[in-house]
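This entry is passed on directly below:
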Amino acid sequence: MDPQPEKLVPEQVFTPRTLVTRKMFERRNEPDSDGNPGVQDRLVDAIRDRGGQVLMYGDTGVGKSSLLKYVAEDLELKLVTIECTANTDYAGMLDDVVRKLLDVRETKFTKRRNFEAGVSAEGSVPWFTKLSGTVKGAVGRDTEYQVIEKPAVDVVTELLSKSGISLLVLDNFQNVRTESTRELVAQLLERFSDRASDDWNEPDAKCVVIGISEDATSLLGSSRSYLRRTAQIGVPRMPDDEIRALLARGFELLGMEVPDGIMKDFVFYSDGFPYFAHLIGLNVARAALRSGDEAVGRAQLMAALTEAARSVTASYQDRVRLAKERNGDVRPRTQIMKLLANDSRRSWTGSEIQDLWVSNIGGRDNFAAIHVALGNLVTEQYGTILKRTGKQGSYRYRFADPHIRPFLRITETDET
């Protein structure tokens, strides 16, 4: 008799706070943020392109790191990841890479001015004056490694090769605060690219920068030199069909049934974010298990939305509380948030918001109060709910933090 498959628990399937598992990874067939077809295929092509470096950007919670992880696995490529923080600088970044690749016995790290090609004379470029250790992950027996007086970037590329690692990943790059570090990383991409063309017998090591941003230049600047060597891939929110497929697979793995009507609600509340799909899926699955019912019903969904609202960062609750009026019959700020949260578009002109008001609430003799409310919602005093771009008379509005909209959708249902 064949052994029964291990019964999974919700936490093994829905993972909102970490990378998704291979079973739960949904292929990304949608266009990238610039409309280029097939975001996953674009990433594959970029990684295969010798000498080309990669910059991935997009909203938080859209699955950038998971996409890279499974594309690398499909291509049978190993990667090493550095998590960037507010304290990350260029020298420390390279030091972290070396320590992940080498069991360091003794390291002396100095900073000198360096005028070699591709490095700004104004930048302080790190050197290792003495370094020895055993290469981690080297094929076969342990490999001893020692350098005397060598630029750290040379050490990094050599260790990547000796460790059989093809991708150096700088994740959460939006946390890097200093402009000098961003400039030096842009130059690092150029140097990786140059090295790939210097010797075709050497492996094609790449640097992949991942960050939360609306565009590539917001992360690394607009230097034409690094841009022409780098594929900029904007990872969008997931389309509804991919969110639906992700959720359906998860509940199937748990042996649970979800009616079509409730699945439609799941997709709506997720708003294109795998993070929210996993968060809601996890809480629904837990609620269903507690009730002893394998068929997910409306009661489990409502309980899950309440729990999801509690688990989202408290700053959203505080910001929405600041934005809402405490009294009054019209309450334009509250109504505007509700209208925009439930609309399918992601940015609006003032006229489009007026039209939404008329369609959903009714006409008004004067819309001045609506435009005053819009002006309030972009300020810190009222929670910075919206972001405004453009010039007066042609403003466009969008949610300042893209996660606020699914939060508003969830909490609106919870309040009703």
Summary: The chain has three domains: 27-104+141-234, 238-311, 315-413.
